[in-house]
Design goal:
3 strands; 58% helix; mainly alpha; Arc Repressor Mutant, subunit A; 5 helices; three-stranded antiparallel β-sheet; 119 residues
Length: 119
């Protein structure tokens, strides 16, 4: 008898966004690009890592669709892409509304409690 394994759900684009933003270095890059476009060298300069290590972080952001990179001459220029972030925010807002409703229901339960006290 073989054990059956559940197949993992297919990854959605929002999964890659959250995975990319889970790292503080990549969040710092997103924050920097929110100010203005920058070259790879400009983005890597304030970070304490090799350009090769930084390039791996940048690749994760590009693969998630959060950053677009364009080669101009010898430099790669990066810019923030808003659509994947908007989709992630919409996903969070959807579940934020769910949890808000759940907390409102819990509050109503406490208000109707026989002792009339709230924890």
């Amino acid at each position: 008898m073989t054990a059956s394994r559940a197949k993992p759900a297919p990854r959605r684009p929002v999964d890659a966004v959250f995975a990319a933003l889970a790292n503080p270095t990549r969040r710092a890059v997103v924050e920097r690009l929110a100010e203005s476009d920058a070259t790879v060298s400009e983005l890597a300069a304030p970070l304490d890592m090799s350009l090769q290590a930084f390039s791996r972080h940048l690749r994760v952001l590009v693969d998630a669709g959060l950053v677009a990179s364009e080669k101009r001459g010898r430099e790669h220029h990066c810019r923030l892409v808003q659509d994947p972030m908007i989709e992630a925010i919409a996903w969070m807002a959807q579940y934020g509304a769910f949890w808000e409703q759940q907390l409102d229901s819990l509050e109503a339960l406490f208000v109707r409690s026989p002792t009339g006290t709230r924890p």
